[in-house]
Request: fold
Amino acid sequence: MRDLRQDLSGLWQAATRITPRAGGRVLMFMSAREGEGTSSVAASFALMAAARAARMTWLIDLDLRENPLYTAFSKGVLSGVGRPGHPLDASLGVEQIYSVSGSEKVPALTKLLTAHQIDGLRLLVTRFRNERLSPGHSVRMLAAPGWWEALRRSADWAIIDAPSLSRSAAGLIYAPLTDGVVLVVQAETVGADEVEDLRAAVEAAGGNVIGVVMNRLKSGRPPAGNQRMGGWRAF
Reply:
């Protein structure tokens, strides 16, 4: 994960012009394939929001299996950014965005999703407690509109890092509940047709695609000069 805040000014200006349905804004980042840099863009945008927001900003990781965002912050991947603090209950006292089933006794659902404040920032990053599940448990994502409504009442921004569509359709479940979806693509490898296919899938699910971030940073390579992002294009 890389810090791309200096490259996202155009996106920030566009996102702040979005009128939220009620309360805080909810913005999703999503790609067609893995390795496009979605987590870097989502985390960087969340850091920008947290620095400007009066209330909390939430960074929501839909990769419940791996929790890559929490792991990255814990390891100090982003220079100068604090570590996650102790776990806070992220259930918000309403219906949950997931369900658990299986032959084993299902743990209390309100104890599985936590939020951790990043030291020194008005930023909470989520973590799913997989260690409380048994091998026989399976997790299913749920839209849970009530959870998102409660979140809007308590936060200025909620930033969603969705898995790539090639890996999971989880992002499509929540796309209709957001104020906008931003596509993230690797500029050198993804063609216009693939971008349009992803846009069509999001819009068919009820989401509103507001634009695309063209990522020119190859996965795993250090940035060369300032050529990290290819810019922001609104639809």
Summary: Residues 219-228 have pLDDT under 50 and may be disordered. The two ends are 26 Å apart (CA to CA). DSSP finds six helices and eleven strands in the chain.
